[in-house]
Design goal:
The chain is α/β, with parallel strands linked by helices. The chain has three domains: 258 residues, Metallo-dependent phosphatases (Purple Acid Phosphatase, chain A, domain 2, 4-Layer Sandwich), CATH 3.60.21; 61 residues, no CATH class; 48 residues, no CATH class. 27% of the residues lie in helices and 25% in strands. β4, α2 and β5 form a beta-alpha-beta unit. α11 crosses α12. The protein is elongated, with a radius of gyration of 27 Å. It starts with a strand and ends with a helix. The relative contact order is 0.11.
């Protein structure tokens, strides 16, 4: 049984106010091409199909087209809702789609029944468990103490009555303890959404969504495939991919990846303004079209730096400085000698604490003039 494992499309997402719609259309076409090459038995979409519970029309149209293309192939498609999705909206029309081989998880009702597929080794049970919180599960198991996400998943899975003699696949969207997060995910304070991996012991493969960096958790049997695109600069060095999981006889699993190359990469550049604007630095690279985060190390701010840099780096998303001023962490506190200092001296102290350098003579003269005008009532 060959499975293509996808998740976290986040269709309709904006990154630093840049719409990712065109990038997403491009990468979905690449995924379709991979599916044509791999000829899997099924495709899994493990949640966060959309970036918002009420997605823009263009995102809905894009997913509709993607599902239609998949339905034209000789395979089964399994879709669950993630924490960014509205389970009710995503599940609309699900019973009609079943006939086309597209299976969308309903709103969780305490009863998850498997969809059975067969191959030369026998039956594979596919369980679809959408993103749930303890409160979503607790209402269906009043006699079970459910306080944590682990409690909730354990109760939901226990209800499935899994036949461990057969091969079983779980599709779910949760944060499993030990997974490495990135900045583009929603994080619960104190890790209260952690799920212990032991709840998945009865499954031969767990197709996870929610974490954006591709990775195994405890073993390749429990895997996040990650996002198909980079959605934050914390992912700049990640290699995005499609996960291919192949189940042979019971106990035999092979997991591999097929790289995904975006139309625009996401990169971070650091250096002085004069260095980064040299043609010899960026020529021959894809930087001019990539989504770029630039950190300037110049001690003085560059006037209109964003506009100037965008003449070279067309998709500059973010600009920072790393210099003595930005690294300065001194805390401004009350000083016993403050009453003995003039307003100009106080402002000079404040400027140094904020910027890590003394004011120039020209700046001191300018501030003195402003303070003098204030005191004389001219401002």
């Amino acid at each position: 049984m060959k499975i293509v494992h996808l998740s976290d499309l986040h269709l309709g997402k904006k990154v630093n106010e840049y719409s990712m719609i065109e990038d997403q259309k491009y990468i979905l076409k690449k995924i379709i091409s991979i599916i044509d090459d791999e000829k899997p038995d099924c495709v899994i979409l493990a949640g966060d199909i959309y970036d918002k519970s009420v997605p823009p029309t263009e995102a809905v149209d894009m997913f509709d087209d993607f599902l239609f293309r998949l339905s034209q192939k000789d395979l089964q498609v399994f879709v669950i809702s993630g924490n960014h999705d509205s389970p009710e909206r995503l599940a609309f029309g699900a019973r009609l789609m079943n006939a086309s081989g597209v299976h969308i998880s309903p709103v969780y009702d305490g009863n998850v029944q498997p969809i059975k597929l067969t191959d030369e080794y026998g039956t594979v049970n596919i369980y679809m468990l959408p993103f749930v919180k303890p409160a979503n599960v607790r209402r269906f198991f009043e006699d079970v103490e459910i306080n944590t996400y682990t409690d909730a998943l354990r109760a939901a899975i226990r209800q499935m009555n899994i036949d461990t003699a057969e091969r079983n696949v779980l599709i779910t969207h949760q944060f499993v303890t030990g997974a490495e997060r990135t900045e583009s995910e929603e994080i619960s304070v104190g890790g209260t959404d952690n799920v212990d991996a032991s709840v998945f012991d009865d499954f031969d493969y767990v197709a996870l969504g929610h974490i954006h960096r591709p990775q195994n958790v405890t073993s390749e049997r429990i895997r996040y495939c990650g996002t198909p695109l980079k959605y934050s600069f914390s992912e700049a060095k990640d290699q995005k991919s499609v996960t291919i999981a192949e189940l042979a006889e019971k106990g035999t699993l092979n997991v591999r990846t097929v790289p995904l190359v975006p139309v625009h990469d996401m990169v971070e550049l650091k250096g002085k303004y004069d260095e980064l604007t040299l043609k010899s630095f960026y020529d021959g690279t894809s930087y001019r079209e990539d989504y770029v985060h630039i950190t300037l190390t110049d001690e003085d701010d560059i006037p209109d730096a964003v506009s100037k840099l965008r003449t070279i780096y067309r998709n500059l998303m973010k600009l920072d400085y790393d210099n003595a001023r930005t690294r300065h962490t001194a805390v401004i506190s009350a000083d016993a000698g403050m009453d003995d200092k003039s307003p100009v001296e106080l402002f000079s102290d404040f400027y140094k604490l904020q910027n890590g350098v003394e004011m120039t003579d020209e700046q001191s003269e300018y501030i003195s003039g402003i303070i003098r005008d204030i005191w004389e009532g001219e401002i």
